[in-house]
Amino acid sequence: MIKIILPLFVVLLFSSLTHVNAQKVWTLEECISYAFENNITVKRQALNAAYQQNELQQSKMNRLPDLNAQTSYGHSYGYTWVQQEAENIDVNNRSFGMGIGTSVDVFNGFSARNTVRRNKIDLMASLASNEVVKNDIALRITSQYLQILFDKELLAVAKEQYEVTNQQVERALKLVAAGSEARGSYLEIKSQAAKEALTVTQQENNLALSILDLAQLLDLENVDGFDVVSPVMPR
């Protein structure tokens, strides 16, 4: 059985999509891609990397000279007494001003340069952490995906064994009825069939839990009908 499970990972990424009862089943590649886009931890780390990128960009811009420009405009009007004319005349005054200024740090103890260096290091650390988080989630998804495939194999084996034992129960019952076999042998094989029926139920529960664990790892809102592709092994 182990020989069957181990080569599965080789063909997981190349498995085609299938549908069961109109429900979409997921390949390993789809599970990992979905997690990279929707997992809360991955999204949080990506936001942190974006923040560090902005901090680095801002620290670089802070080293550039400041340029300020301003304009002003004034308008006044009224009357004034002109002695020579012996009368009041209208007076309108308009004014316009414009100014441009710039400033640059000549020396600040290398503070700006050190800030840029620190922000570069912070960005590199954030990007590295982002890769670590993505690798971790990919490994966890792969492990859980393989666990589902393993549980499916165990369930298939358990069902097959139970079917064989049931056939033996029917055969033993006929032999007891014909007087060719003791009833004790029939009861013994029947007890074995009951144990194997319990094993089938346990394996079904294990598979259901494995599928649920993967769905929760992907942060799926709806897990109804969720299942994964079982690759077809090359012959």
Keywords:
Outer membrane efflux proteins (OEP); 18% strand; alpha+beta; cell outer membrane; single chain; 235 residues; 6 helices; disordered N terminus; two-stranded antiparallel ribbon; rod-shaped; three-stranded mixed β-sheet; transport
Walk me through what this model shows:
The protein is α+β, with helices and mostly antiparallel strands and 235 residues long. It has one domain: Outer membrane efflux proteins (OEP) (Up-down Bundle). Helices cover 61% and strands 18% of the residues. It has helices at residues 2-5, 8-12, 28-38, 40-61, 111-177, 183-217; strands at residues 19-20, 23-26, 66-82, 87-103, 227-228. The strands form two sheets. The chain has a three-stranded mixed β-sheet with strand order 1-2-5. Strands 3-4 form a two-stranded antiparallel ribbon. β1 (19-20) and β2 form a beta hairpin. α3 packs across α5 (111-177) and α4 runs antiparallel to α5 (111-177). The longest helix is centred in the middle third of the chain and has 67 residues, at 111-177. The two termini are 16 Å apart. The model is unreliable at 1-22 (pLDDT under 50).
Short note summarizing the structure:
With 235 residues, this protein is an alpha+beta fold.
